[in-house]
Amino acid sequence: MELWYTEQHTENVQFSIKVEKQLHTEQTEFQRIDILEAKEFGKFFTLDGLMMITEKDEFIYHDMIVHVPMATNPNIKKVLVIGAGDGGTIRELTRYKTVEKIDMVEIDKRVVDVCREYFPQVSCKLDDERVNIFFEDGLKFVRTKENEYDLIIVDSTDPFGPGEGLFTKEFYGNCYKALNENGILVNQHESPYYDNDALAMKEAHEKVIGFFPIIKVYQAHIPTYPSGHWLFGFASKKYHPIKDLDANAWNELGIETKYYNTDLHVGCFALPNYVKHMLKGLTK
Amino acid sequence: MELWYTEQHTENVQFSIKVEKQLHTEQTEFQRIDILEAKEFGKFFTLDGLMMITEKDEFIYHDMIVHVPMATNPNIKKVLVIGAGDGGTIRELTRYKTVEKIDMVEIDKRVVDVCREYFPQVSCKLDDERVNIFFEDGLKFVRTKENEYDLIIVDSTDPFGPGEGLFTKEFYGNCYKALNENGILVNQHESPYYDNDALAMKEAHEKVIGFFPIIKVYQAHIPTYPSGHWLFGFASKKYHPIKDLDANAWNELGIETKYYNTDLHVGCFALPNYVKHMLKGLTK
Hints:
Two copies of one chain form a homodimer.
Chain A (H helix, E strand, L loop, with lengths): L2 E8 L2 E7 L1 E7 L4 E7 L3 E6 L2 E5 L3 H15 L5 E6 L4 H6 L7 E5 L3 H10 L1 H4 L7 E4 L3 H6 L5 E7 L13 H10 E10 L6 H14 L5 E8 L7 E8 L10 H6 L9 H6 L5 H6 L6
Parallel strand pairs in A: 7-8, 7-10, 8-9, 10-11
Antiparallel strand pairs in A: 1-2, 3-4, 4-5, 5-6, 11-13, 12-13
Subunit structure (chains A, B): Homodimer or homotetramer.
Catalytic activity (chains A, B): S-adenosyl 3-(methylsulfanyl)propylamine + putrescine = S-methyl-5'-thioadenosine + spermidine + H(+)
Family (chains A, B): Belongs to the spermidine/spermine synthase family.
């Protein structure tokens, strides 16, 4: 027999992967988790049927959500990560000796448990001594923090379901407050290509724009996400992602990466005109 | 009923589009042509079942294959285009008043006829007085030319079927000869993501490397091609695509584009590390 996983990228577009076997499925308090195995992508997992990470290309997303802010400010010491239950963002952060503390807030403990079991090469640094894991709602967690972090990474699902609160004005305002004067906020930012994703991107962006003096968007090629053209939001109190990049300093760290490099750091902020047009008045 | 077009991106990965209707199908002397209409992409056409262009995003491919070389050398006057039967590359070239002559060599006249009928907004400049259309084999055409063109654009299908000869050492050698001392060669260059596409990319690259002193690769987000991470080859006798870019000069031309801009021109040459690794020793 043939077994195919299909994600509806829109009502009229499907992306399908031939699956060798389903390794795990469960309905948690928050969402449905599935772990599948495929010849093309290795193991991959979905939440409520939507692709989260694959063994083949998780490095792209995790490189881009971590190394862009970390190279912008080499003095980042205290980091808050919201979501990120698979551990990939934590793995990349722990490669910096300068990072002293990482608070990770994941609403669904089952995501962490399952990823520890099936994706050891992604979750491998969740037990690093600098990491504190809180199984809570990120929205509530961040309300209690003030002037505490150098960097907040919002490694969330899409802006519906459990991730919904992480795309609100209240949440971004609390992130601003939780960051110190050097603070940077990076979040996954949907895609500009299909109408529904583009709408989610614009709505999220409209909500963050008021709080931070520097607001940028950068992009990466992530073939397993809808359209493969994926965006990240970069909001910052002081550091400019290009003007303040010290490429030599980052390269001297000797961190080997499969996607990120300091030329690409600059290049990824050069958006196509149609994307710039969508964001008109929403970056600064 | 539901009608779905499916392209196998690999043996184990499918990309499917819900189709409203099939507008045209024929088997020509060279290949099968299909024109389909879809809610998400508007009209699109395939050759031997593989996606060529869609109304929704053809601007991305055509912007990137034309404006990158044209902005690199603003004195391009004589252009040879191989393939490009849909007319999109010609449409973008004719926007430059400085271009004096465009020879277009398309092996399959039926592609041009059908695109004139179904894609008037793409084929609209095929009758520009500077354009000469030759229905011939591009491989043979270029053998007869010497020191004649400022730019050759190879807007071909994949390196199998009718496009196969356009990825050979003999072809690239003849292109070198057909170009004058300022000559630039740009070609569609497959994708780095799926193994088969990456192999085609490397093989093509190995064949062009000997002839030109400057060899680069650049990328674009084209969601309707396999993986959405598409590459273009840039081979040049004299002009360097970044060092010789005069961004102000290009911007003063006032050419409005939906994808290309001069920041992106620089950014698109910043490749991810895994792609650089594949091309190691194959760029210069």
